Amino acid sequence: MIRVKEMGPRDGLQNEKQIISIEDRIKYIHLLEQAGLDYIEVGAFVRPDLIPQMAGTDAVIDGLDLQEHTEISVLVPNIKGFEQARNTGIKEIAVFTAASETFNQKNINASIAESLQRFIEICKQADDLNIKVRGYVSTCFVCPFEGNISPEQVIPVIEKLLEMGCYEVSIGDTIGKATLAQTRTLFEKTHHIGLNGWLAGHFHDTYGQAIDNIKTAMEWDVKTFDASSGGIGGCPYAPGAPGNVGTEDVVQMLQKENIENKVNLTALVKASSFIEKKIGHRLASKVYQEEK
Ligand code: HMG
Ligand code: MG
Fold first, then answer.
1. How far apart are CA 29 and CA 61, in angstroms?
2. Is the CB of 77 under 6 A from ligand 1?
3. Residue 235 pLDDT greater than 90, yes or no
């Protein structure tokens, strides 16, 4: 069984010029849930002057009426973001750092070590409140500023996030430039040191390599992958980054491979079609465009 974690309402919308209303963000999340997605990243508590698309994440959470088994999460970069998340009553958050110093500095204005230090305190407070913490490592293969990144730069960051209490670490191909060889090398190394049961794959689809990279990670027993409905998404600090891999593309690949997953493609296309109209441009996922 492969778990697909839906990023559309966060990684997707954060990179769209069009600001989507709170009401429409809530409707989109409800449609994603109806499609069978039982894990949805619904927003971020970051600086609204930098990422205005995520402003009002507290109001989005407040307006949700989801089934009990549906898990939601939000991005949290520091204690201030954690306090905002905690006040909503959410039961899961995600902290995010990188394997490249330059990217991390530009993204969250902190060195990798500084960000990890902040997360230790967040993890402690989260643990006291029974809030689960997921970790992200961005630029695990290629950094838009530093070029290729080696597994030796990535693995210590993963280990520190797990040590401080993250239950899972998502491995980001932030600008979609990972080659199959790089994906194989990293997940082979993490497999040999027993980490892959705690890892997820977060592939962007810049060069159309995301599905093949996911299949490669699956060969090394990675069982959770992030995706955005319709393929919306990206990262504002990674020049040229397009969307995450389309959820439709992942679901269709799993169906073709006869691998169990819980998502209904027809209902998913309905969710993507709703948000495509609100965003006002054609979404990138080929499978979505074929199925709609
Ligand atoms: P900073 O400027 O270093 O923070 O921002 P600061 O502590 O110096 O505070 C400066 C001002 O910001 C203060 O306000 C704070 O209150 C405020 P003032 O007193 O001047 O009025 N502030 C905040 N406001 C709201 N929420 C907060 C917060 N923290 C401080 N949490 C910060 C540091 C990280 C907040 C900032 O750089 C930021 O918001 N960056 C945006 C990061 C982001 O959202 N990036 C995109 C998501 S990551 C991603 O997409 C990658 C991923 O998908 C994986 C992959 O693909 O690789 C996850
Ligand atoms: Mg991303």
1. 10
2. yes
3. no
